[in-house]
Amino acid sequence: MSPFNLAVTALLAAGVACEVLCALGVLVMRGPFQKLHYASAGTTVGAFFIGLAIVARETLHAGGAVEVSAGGLEVLAAVCFMFLLGPAVTILTARTARRLEHEPVEITPAELERGS
Amino acid sequence: MNAYLVAATVLIAAIAPCLAVCLRGSVMEAIAALELCGTLTTLALICLAEGFHRQAYFGVALVCSVLVWIGGLVFVRFAGRLK
Q: Which ipTM score applies to this complex?
């Protein structure tokens, strides 16, 4: 196995490991806010590693040649979409969960006092 | 069976814990798990396309990522009306 293939496989394995860890975190943690931490990490960290592995596989070739393919661009677009816009859904979910559990969304004086 | 198909299989298997949370958890916990389900599905589709050497299948993953994001927004929007 060439060093390039080894690096791509390592990136893929790291991404899959991150996703499995996030899925287990969502299962084990209690409450929507704890679970959202892991769901959000799955959208960013794992997706980044897997996307990097596939884009490298699709665009880089033997001898250092770079060939941009339609497949590589589509993977890049899909991963960038998840990476950049996923946190927006996470923030909206957290705000809704807070509104359902505690009536006001704004920071209360007591929370401001204790810093959390 | 190459590394990408193995990765896709593991990613699909990782959906199972999220489905368990969807069945047992509260509404907001289920939505958080559902968001991760969408991410796992998109990444599994990407890995399957690479594993089968079919570049056309990458378009499915791209569309899936957009629909998962929009679906998440819609679910959260209507979940906010529960109270």
A: 0.90
